[in-house]
Amino acid sequence: MDFVRDHSPNEEYTHAHEQYRGFVTFQRTQGAAALALENNNPEAAIDEVRGGLDRLKAFFTAHDAVEQMEEDGMVQHLRRIEQSLREQHHIEATLQEQLDRAIANEEYEAAARLRDRLRERQ
Predict the structure, then answer these.
(1) pLDDT tens for residues 78-101?
(2) How far apart are the first and last CA of the chain?
(3) Which of 52, 74, 86, 108 has the fewest CB neighbours in a 10 Å radius?
């Protein structure tokens, strides 16, 4: 998605396209989550939503608007999707979230097991 910024002929062109990055990120995230659900993988759908929220945070940060992020309708909608998926499929933490937590806590043996389980799913 950095193609426009990296290969833009001028600042005006960049601005004309960058203003839609948040919306495109939102739409792409919904689509990726829907595809994961269609493939019967609610954990992957949650991970897609979380990844989209991370990309939106980067977008808001880049525009010095991170304090407005939680008020944004797209962010709120993605948060509702994530919560709904967790409730419907009884998922407290996805394998990716568990792996991230194990690495952060320096639990490397557990992280290796979780990494292996993630690879098996893929």
Answers:
(1) 999 999 999 999 999 999 999 999
(2) 24
(3) 108
- What is the domain partition of the chain in residue ranges? 3-91, 92-122
Rounded Cα–Cα distance for residues 28 and 13 (Å): 22
Reported as type and span, the H/E element at residue 97 is helix 95-104
Residues 6+ apart with CB under 8 A from 52: 25, 26, 28, 29, 30, 32, 33, 78
What pLDDT is attached to residue 103? 97
Q: CB pairs under 8 A, 24+ apart, for 17-20?
A: none
Here the tokens at position 81 are 């999707």
Q: How far apart are CA 41 and CA 95, in angstroms?
A: 12
Residue 7 carries which side chain, given as an amino acid letter? H
- Residue 33's contacts (CB-CB under 8 Å, 6 or more residues apart) are 45, 46, 48, 49, 52, 81, 85
